[in-house]
Design goal:
It is built from no helices and 11 strands. By secondary structure, the protein is mainly β. The protein is globular.
Length: 118
Amino acid sequence: EVRLVESGGGLVQAGESLRLSCATSGFTFDDYAIGWFRQAPGRDREIVSCISSREGSTYHADFVKGRFTISRDIAKNTVSLQMNSLKPEDTAIYYCNAKLPFTPTNYWGRGTQVTVSS
């Protein structure tokens, strides 16, 4: 059974940090690109950061570049998102996604809430 379980969300003040984790199981971790997406109320889900399969190349959306960092621990099958200098506009549910490249196969976690107060 494929599982992606997010943790680490919470309520913080602007300027503070959080570290999200995505614990995965049930698939070959290194074969999948892992991404963090977020969805704020009334808005579409958007990609935040992702890390590629195999070589581990990273991508960060412009609105988090320089503040967020994605990383992975292959031994633990986990992906983390270090979020610094949080802003109120970062408030959203953050979801972990695993995608097998060049196929429609992908899996989602249930999300973790991040709330940033001003």
